[in-house]
Design a protein that fits this description.
Radius of gyration: 18 Å
Largest sheet: 6 strands, mixed
CATH topology of the largest domain: D-Maltodextrin-Binding Protein, domain 2
Oligomer: single chain
Distance between the termini: 33 Å
Number of helices: 12
Order of helices and strands: EHEHEHEEEEHEHEEEHEHEHHHHH
Shape: globular
Length: 287
């Protein structure tokens, strides 16, 4: 009789890059040893909120949210979503200037997202916001209203970065490019995976290793992993899904590396300096 396996509940977004990353774990493509993984696919803002109760042993987190959760979760060295001179985009019905959006109402996918943190720094908090499900941002921006409230622009994440033009919308600012210029060439660290600290050092190290194996497996079996990821593409064709996965599952995802870790540190430092993150947090990664 084999010993009972430790349950690791995994939370990640229902989008192609996360699906690609977790393909090997979700489809039992790798030996997970003493662990049994179950998966919950939920939008990132919901995962951010749930992490305050530390429900899940392994969860995708916005790095903005991590600033409030560092006592509960430690960052995996792998699984990062980095925007290297690209990232979340502010889009609008007309090609207006960024400054013209000051004081206006922007549809955002959640206030704990890194996209919201970057926008808040970019516009010095000088805007109103309405939280809208991420997969409705393009539609409500195109419509110009949400639940009776006027919408002047939208903050789009995930595949909306590749599809906004098909709805006649204009790019106002790419926050990944803005950050790259502001920091002298750092990537914008958007998301990471956090492991619950109470699992203990040995289990944390093993779960981190298995996540990396899953990412590596997807990269080495790209065609089949992409086929699985396409199921979460929300209208993306294979070519666009491949492009999107390539944007957010790459060498950065295998390991943050020194530059990636510096980017996380700088994001949290600047967020605190801008009086958006209340406490200065120094990120801690699985050793």
């Amino acid at each position: 009789m084999s010993a009972t396996k430790t349950l690791i509940r995994v939370g990640h977004s229902p989008d192609p890059d996360d699906a690609f990353m977790f393909y090997a774990l979700a489809k039992d493509k790798i030996d997970t040893g003493d662990f049994r993984f179950t998966h919950e696919l939920v939008d990132i803002e919901t995962l951010n909120r749930r992490a305050f109760q530390a429900e899940l042993e392994l969860t995708a987190l916005s790095l903005h949210a991590y600033a409030y959760l560092a006592d509960k979760y430690i960052l995996c060295t792998c699984g990062a979503s980095m925007g290297d001179n690209y990232g979340p985009m502010v889009i609008a019905r007309q090609p207006v200037t960024l400054d013209s959006l000051r004081g206006k109402t922007i549809a955002v996918p959640g206030t704990l997202t890194t996209a919201f943190l970057a926008l808040s720094m970019c516009l010095q908090k000088d805007f109103q916001h309405v939280v809208v499900p991420f997969d409705e941002i393009l539609n409500v921006t195109e419509a110009g209203e949400y639940q009776g409230q006027k919408i002047d622009a939208g903050l789009c994440i995930h595949e909306g970065q590749l599809t906004y033009q098909s709805q006649g919308l204009s790019l106002i600012v790419d926050l990944g490019k803005w950050w790259f210029q502001e920091t002298g060439g750092l990537p914008l660290p958007l998301g990471a995976n956090g492991i619950r600290r109470d699992l203990g050092p040995q289990a944390i190290a093993q779960v981190n290793r298995l996540l990396k194996e899953s990412i590596q497996y997807g990269l080495e079996h790209r065609a089949t992993a992409l086929e699985y990821a396409l199921g979460y593409g929300r209208g993306l064709d294979r070519s666009k899904a491949d492009t999107f996965v390539g944007m957010y599952v790459n060498d950065w995802t295998l390991d943050f590396g020194p530059r990636g870790r510096s980017a996380v540190t700088e994001l949290l430092r600047r967020g605190h300096a801008a009086d958006i993150i209340p406490k200065l947090v120094v990120p801690e990664f699985v050793s």
